[in-house]
Amino acid sequence: MDSSQASIFEQVRVWLHAARHIAMLTGAGVSAESGVPTFRDAQTGMWARFRPEDLATEEAFRRDPQRVWDWYAERRENLRDVQPNAGHSAVAEFQQRHPGRLTLITQNVDGLHQKAGSPSVLALHGTIFENQWLDRCELARRPMDACHVDQAEPGRPPRCAQCGNLARPAVVWFGEMLPTAAMAAAEQAARRCEVMLVAGTSGAVYPAAGLAHQARAAGAKVVIVNPDETELDEIADAVLTGTSARILPRLLEDW
Ligand code: OAD
Hints:
The structure is a single chain. By secondary structure, the chain is α/β, with parallel strands linked by helices. It has 2 domains: 1-35 and 84-125 and 178-255, TPP-binding domain (Rossmann fold, 3-Layer(aba) Sandwich); 37-81 and 127-171, SIR2/SIRT2 'Small Domain'. The protein is 36% helix and 16% strand. It has helices at 3-18, 46-49, 52-55, 58-63, 65-79, 86-97, 112-116, 180-192, 210-217, 244-252, and strands at 22-26, 102-106, 122-123, 126-133, 167-171, 195-199, 221-226, 238-241. Strands 3-2-1-6-7-8 form a 6-stranded parallel β-sheet, with helices on both faces. The chain has a two-stranded antiparallel ribbon with strand order 4-5. Helix 6 runs parallel beside helix 10 and helix 8 (180-192) packs parallel to helix 9 (210-217). The longest helix is centred in the first third of the chain and has 16 residues, at 3-18. It is elongated and about 65 Å long. The relative contact order is 0.19. It binds 2'-O-acetyl adenosine-5-diphosphoribose (OAD). Residues 27-30, 32-33, 38-41, 45, 52, 56, 107, 125, 172, 174, 200-202, 204-205, 226-228, 230, 243-244 line the site of 2'-O-acetyl adenosine-5-diphosphoribose.
């Protein structure tokens, strides 16, 4: 770390120390050092190899459910043995040491913050390890609980034996609403925090990236942790250039 980065780092530590409420927004980059590919990195990102509109929209799933199901099934399989890294652990340990002080908001569906022991995680884009029904059951005029997704008939994708409804991964696709309660809690944290830490996200996807704008508008310091430039750098009070597994443990260790 050069001397200008070192002094920015110390400044951020002072802000964090003084903050009663910290909000933290994470993205795919915090899992990169666990071996999980990001979305937008030029060579290795998922969206360098696949088109989101072929795989991460409801239209894509309706057009070719098996292809989309298989893509998510492969990602689930690849994630099964993946372990959290030092960045995830640093956040989890901070939350455990300072209950209620850091609200963790993630766009990640990989469950690694939870696996690291973070006591509460607002998962804005859902979780890849769970399924939900594609359609509500209204057409079949049955209450939803007449069909249990875990009792779906095996297949790719599994389907309800009674009404044919398809199971789909419980992630948020492009064009879909974010889970209302998680988003409301995230917005509340953005409005009341004194520091908004933004780690491992390109800041390209809204409404998640909008949380950093909301925090800034409410007077918080916005701090970016990322090895590369992001779309949120221009509203940041401090940019810490480096990887999350390297920076977060030192940033969040006790003073
Ligand atoms: P992106 O792939 O857009 O951005 C990943 C960010 O992580 C980039 O800014 C990288 O520079 C940074 N990065 C890479 N390695 C890192 C490391 N070791 N430490 C810290 N940062 C690192 O991923 P997201 O911003 O998470 O949505 O993307 C947001 C959403 O777009 C995702 O949740 C997903 C995607 O399409 C849906 O699937 C709905």
